[in-house]
Amino acid sequence: MAKVMAKLRRKRRRSAVPRPEKCTVYLNGKLIGFHQNGGELAKQLREKRRSGALSQEANIAYFERTEECFISTDSGRARRPYVVVENGKSKFTKELSDKLKKKEIGWEWLIKNGVVEYLDAEEEENTLVAIKEKELTPDHTHLEIDPVSIVGAVVGQLPYPEYNSSPRITMACAMAKQSLGVYASNMNLRMDSRAHFLWYPQQPLVQTSPYRVLRMSERPAGVNMVVAITSYHGYNMGDGLVVNRNAIDRALMRSTFYKAYESEERRYPGGQKDRFETPDATVQGYREEQYYRHLGDDGVVVPESDVQAKDVLVGKTSPPRFLEEVSIFGITEEKKRENSVTVKSGEDGTVDAVLLSESPSGNKMVKVKVRAARVPELGDKFASRHGQKGVVGLLVNQEDLPFTKDGVVPDLILNPHAIPSRMTAGHLLEMLGGKAMSFYGEIGDATAFSGDTADRFRKILEAVGFTSDGKEILYDGITGEQIEAEIFIGVVYYQKLHHLVANKMHVRSRGPVQLLTHQPTEGRAREGGLRFGEMERDCLIGYGASMLLNERMLKESDKTSELVCGKCGGIAVHDHIKNRSYCPLCDETTNLAEIEMSYAFKLLLDEIKAIGIFPRLVLKDKA
C-alpha cells in the first residue's frame, strides 16, 4: 500500500509541474532558440534530411515531457543504419532489393533517397524499431536491416548468442581475441615481438553471416572437435578437459610460438659506438665460452641453431661507462664491456630467421626470430565460442576412451556440470549442428536471431540414421562394456588460447633479491620468487603448521640477524673498520643481543624512526 501511495504522490508531483509553453531548441548542446511546436519541428527536419535538403550527418531528438529538441551534428557520435518505415510499411521494397542485387543501385543511393538513415543514441529514443518485417505495425518508425546488427562485430561471429547467458557471451568475446590461428598471411616475413601460429586451423562447421562477411574463414583460429559430454574418472572435474592423446599426436591443436629479439649498434657521445662481434675473453663481463657457440663470424647467431636459455643470439660489445679506466698497473686503458642479447631464462627454441637492417637513427640493427613448438599438455587452456573455457586435466590414449558403435572416439570430454548453471544452450545447439553438418556436407548457419533451428538439425540426423537428440550409446574403452547412460556427443569448434603452460612455467630455488626489502624479486622474467600471500598464510595458521610458516615467511624470504641494545631497545650497529659493535644512541657495547628477524620488520622500524617515533624492542631470555 505504501508503494502505491508513493507512486501516486510522484505522479501528482510530475503532473503538477507545468509544461513549458515553447520548445527549447539546442544545437550540439548549445541553446539556439525556442519553437512553438517541437514535435512538428523534429518531423520537418527529419523529412528534409530524408529528401536530401539537410545533411545525412544531422540527428534530431525531441523530448515531449521536457519540451526540448536536440539537434546533433558534432563528431564522435556512434550511429547505426536503419530502414525507414512509413505507415507501417518498409521503404525498402522488393523492387529495390532486386535492383540492389543487380547492382543498379548501391548503399549511397539508399541513404540519399531516404530509404536507409543513420540514427545516433539520442534519436533512437524517438523510435520504435521492428526486428523483422513481418512484425511491422503502424506505430513502428524503423526496421532493422538484419537482426544480427543489434550485436557488435565480435558477438556477431559467435554462434547462437541469443541462447547463452550474457556473461558467457562477454567471456566468449574476450577469448576469441586470445585464440591462436593464422594471425597474418605474411607471418613468415614479419618480426613480431611475440606471435602464435596454429598448425592445422579449420573453419567452423557452423558459421554466422558476419563471420562470412568478414572472411574470417581465410584466417581461422580453431579446430572442429568431436566432443562428448560426460565425466571421465574425475579428471574433468570443475572445468577440466580430458583430451585424446592420439589426436594430439596427429597434430590436433599443435602450434608454434615465435619470439623476436632485437639489438642495435648505438652511438655514444665522444665518438664511441657498440659493435656486433663475438666478445673476446678479455672483455669485461665475458660469459662462459659455451654460450657463444652458435655465433657466426659477424657475431650474429646462425639460422636454424637450436638455442637454450642464456645462449647468446647477438654478440655485442659496448664502450665502458666512463671514457677511460685505470688498470691494475696504474695505466689508463679503454676496456670494452659485454652487452650481448641472450635467450631469456626458461625459454628455448630454434632460430627461425635473422634480419639485418638499419634503425631509424641510421645504426646497424639485428632482429632474431626464435620459434618453439607448443604441443598441447596438461594445463593448456581451450575454449568453445560460448565462453566454455577449460584446461587440460588429463591426456588419455585413444584405446582407453569411450567409443561409439561406429568406432568414433571423442577428441575432448566435457563435464556435464559445465552446462546447466552457465545456461550455455548455444553450446549444445552447436554440437547438434556440427554433427548434422559433418554428415550433410554443408556449412550450418548459426547467425544470431535468424540461424538454422534445432528442428532442421534433428531431421538431418534422423535422415542419416542417428537419434534426433544427438545422444548415442558409448562403450567403455577400458572394460569394453556398454555404458548404461546415453551420452550427448557432437562436433564443436574449439579454440586454443595463448595461456600455455610452457610460457608460464616458473620455478626458483635461489636468485636475486630486491635492494630495499631484501625479499626475492617479483616476476618470471626477473627469476622472481613465488608469492606466498596472506590467504596462503592463513591456511598454514589454520593447520597450525608453525615450522612451515616460519620457513616460508622468514627463512626463504628476508631473514636477517640484527644487533639489539638491551638498554634502550634500539637497533645497534657493527663498525667493520674498528671491528666493534655499539649502540649509536647510548654507546652501549656490552649489553647487545643478536636477534633473528625479517628484514622488512627492520625496515619498518627505520621508517617509524624517520617520522620521529622511536620504537623500542624489549628483550627477554627464552624460558
The overall average pLDDT, rounded, is 91
Q: How many helical stretches?
A: 14
**Structural class by helix and strand composition:** alpha+beta
Please identify which CATH superfamily of the largest domain we are dealing with.
Answer: DNA-directed RNA polymerase, subunit 2, domain 6
How large, in whole angstroms, is the Cα Rg? 36 Å
Count of individual beta strands: 34
User: From the 3D coordinates, which CATH architecture of the largest domain would you assign?
Assistant: Beta Barrel
Low-pLDDT stretches:
none
Structural account:
β5 (79-86) and β6 (89-90) form a beta hairpin. It is extended, with a radius of gyration of 36 Å. α9 packs parallel to α10 and α12 (534-543) runs antiparallel to α13 (546-555). The protein has 5 domains: 21-150, Hypothetical Protein Ta0175, Chain: A, domain 2, CATH 3.90.1070.20; 161-254 and 378-496, Dna-directed Rna Polymerase Ii 140kd Polypeptide, Chain: B, Domain 6, CATH 2.40.270.10; 259-374, RNA polymerase II, Rpb2 subunit, wall domain (OB fold (Dihydrolipoamide Acetyltransferase, E2P)), CATH 2.40.50; 506-555, DCoH-like (Alpha-Beta Complex); 559-610, DCoH-like, CATH 3.90.1800.10. Helix content is 21%, strand content 26%. With 623 residues, the chain is of the alpha+beta class.
